């Protein structure tokens, strides 16, 4: 997927592959969505919202930016967690530049230092301090910038607020310096390589994460079983299975008199209609698959395939 070195002068187009990395909840998915201008990654305040590598594509004239939004790195507790961590570290090796996001405050944790170590071997990187809207004193931001520069792995340190869309546009210039001459890998009007079915599944998972209490949503997987346009109409029929790990969780996902499932499905349908540009008939069922997060076969079945190294 990454650019081979083309014959100079052969192309008038170029592309830059960017790994968006960092600890959970630092704003990777929010920044990806903002730069792409479309919702390609689901966003909640809970860690581990992004489970697989999601690609956002922005084409500006001859230059195509390909953002790989990776799972936040954390200590893995099961096979799904291990795969998520591997996805983040593998992405560093796959790209033209890594863009690592940081909070303005707090000590760098162990998983962040693991990524910094990986960057020492993994090609160029820039640092982005997000959430500048939370900075109390400009001197705090300067101190953080100095701390990141001192790590010796970042070409530059940028400061942005994704929430206020402040200084985010400057990242396009920053990333364009790492572009490689060659063909565009995606259609110029594409904004993601995720199939529509996967986008639907992710949106449903986002709503479950938003509406439910902490523990259960990580134990759910969403699989789209049917995605069919009705001939002669602007209506798509979508059937979805929501899998959880325990019978007790199933009851919670459905809710009293089906209220929770209805709430999740209704909010998801609104989002789906927006990005599909048509009406959606969404049917959701809840099923139990015990301990699927530790079952290799089910992880593959539910779409958490190991990324082949390119």
Structural notes for this entry:
With 310 residues, the protein is α/β, with parallel strands linked by helices. It folds into 2 domains: 14-181, Rossmann fold; 196-301, K homology (KH) domain (GMP Synthetase, Chain A, domain 3). 35% of the residues lie in helices and 22% in strands. It is built from 10 helices and 10 strands. It has helices spanning 28-36, 79-93, 110-121, 138-149, 170-176, 196-211, 215-218, 247-254, 259-276, 296-301, and strands spanning 14-22, 54-60, 63-69, 97-102, 125-129, 157-159, 180-181, 221-229, 235-244, 279-288. Helix 6 (196-211) packs antiparallel against helix 9 (259-276). The longest helix is centred in the C-terminal third of the chain and has 18 residues, at 259-276. The N and C termini lie close together (7 Å).
Short description:
By secondary structure, the chain is an alpha/beta fold. The chain has helices at residues 28-36, 79-93, 110-121, 138-149, 170-176, 196-211, 215-218, 247-254, 259-276, 296-301; strands at residues 14-22, 54-60, 63-69, 97-102, 125-129, 157-159, 180-181, 221-229, 235-244, 279-288. It is built from ten helices and ten strands.
